[in-house]
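Task: sequence design from structure.
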């Protein structure tokens, strides 16, 4: 496990700023999709805007 983390760390250090930004954006999108699926599962009757608002709230709370 330690070797895998060391490898990841080195790969990230070797990335350009643009690559890091693209990676961060991809991870953010994936987090959004996972949270969106969770909100939909808990509230199947919610309209799309309500689901998105629920995800925005979760994202806001996660950053606090």
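Answer:
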């Amino acid at each position: 496990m330690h070797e895998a983390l060391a490898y990841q760390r080195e790969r990230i250090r070797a990335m350009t700023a643009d690559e890091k930004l693209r990676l961060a954006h991809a991870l953010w999108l994936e987090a959004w999709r996972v949270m969106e699926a969770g909100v939909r599962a808990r509230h199947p009757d919610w309209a799309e805007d309500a689901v998105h608002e629920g995800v925005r709230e979760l994202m806001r709370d996660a950053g606090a």
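The mean pLDDT is 95.
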